[in-house]
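agent: user wants the full assembly modeled, not chains individually. Plan: 1) parse entity lines 2) check alphabet per entity 3) run joint structure prediction 4) return tokens. Steps 1-2 passed, two entities, 439 residues total. Proceeding.
--- entities ---
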Amino acid sequence: MADPTIDTDLPEDVTAAELALGLLEGEERSVVLRRVLAEPGFAAQVEWWRSRLAVLFDLWPERAAPSHIAARIEASLDGVATGTATNVTAAIGTAGPAKVSRFPWPALAAFTSAIAACLLLFVMLRPEPTVPVSQPTPVSRPTSVLVAMLGDAKSPVAAVYDPANGALRVAAGPGVPHAHVAELWVIGGDGVPHSLGLLSAQPTSLAPKGVDRGRIAPGATLAISVEPRGGSPTGLPTGPVVATGVVARV
Amino acid sequence: MTRAYPDADAARAHLSEVLLRTGQEDRDAFRELYTLTSAKLFGITHRICGNAQAAEDVLHEVYLTIWKRAGAWEPGRASPITWLATIARNRAIDWQRAQGVRRTSPLDDAPDIADPGEGAEATLLASESSRELIECLNGLEPQQRDAIRTAFFDGITYAELAIKRAVPLGTMKSWVRRGLARLKDCLDG
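--- prediction returned ---
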């Protein structure tokens, strides 16, 4: 920002637009993300820019996706939903000839059990290169745990989310002034903070509701703000944001 | 998106309904959602990722995300295709930045994106907000408009934009910020 060629007399602050466009990176982006959390008005500006710029999506040229991707997605979903290769092949089997005519992905019906099972294993193992293949793979738990470290390196607050059971465990929250409480937020793709619950001086286990579970995904931001006792009265952070961290898969 | 429907409103209403049903974990609805939207979303991941394999992997992840998060979509806050396209763009950008390489050269086989400033207005949708944004973009200086469009469609940062256009970072920031400020004035006016 010490760049001498930057105008200092801009009529408007366009930081919200810069964030919405994805122009910022690194520390600059983190600082602005904190503003999203701390200033509801600023969050609304980011949202305004996102929705205005989104009409450009209409100009984006389409490109036919290779037909095998649909099957990969289907196999992944079956892996998540049923947890075993046997069930996956059974599920795909039942999607057979009777439904083919209205089934958008006819290739799926042609899969043999063996191919589907191999595909499932491929899909499940591929995104998790850190898991040694030789290790007995817990097939019933294809989803991995998500973590975020909030705050600075000296006194981080760790948050661990297990998509398998929906439990969000958070280490002891930061110290807060009398009659105040630490509140945990998630900011996902919509750029809007959503409350996940209140923290205490002891480790806390939260059970986010269905919609918010989906928001706790890799790349989402978790943040802690200081709120009046009982939590934010507005549904958005009203007090200072004391720690933020980005959700990552482990 | 709108080819199979007489008008954009009907297409949008239909897509909204399909997305809502997907949010209720209706697999048939999800399959239809894929059929209706995968070409648009693959166009997005392909352009930003810059290679077919990565674009396919990201598209796969995008649809898993959509399946998990569809219940969180709120009709009225964002149009369904905007919501879906935003997920695809963000995921592709995450992938691209995770590679840790600056991508500044043009893609080999990425199609040019029609610039409505050069006479393609007719291809544009009926929606008033689209027309308004395009008209306001057209009112910017060429390098401002180019920088904003490139940031959107290539998903790149200030630093990458500056390298791509071979101008100092400060110059690029100045172009974009002035352009965005004018764009906001125009949209507000």
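agent: reporting back. Chain B touches chain A through 80 residues (CB under 8 Å). Residues 116-188 of chain B form a domain with the Arc Repressor Mutant, subunit A fold (CATH 1.10.10.10).
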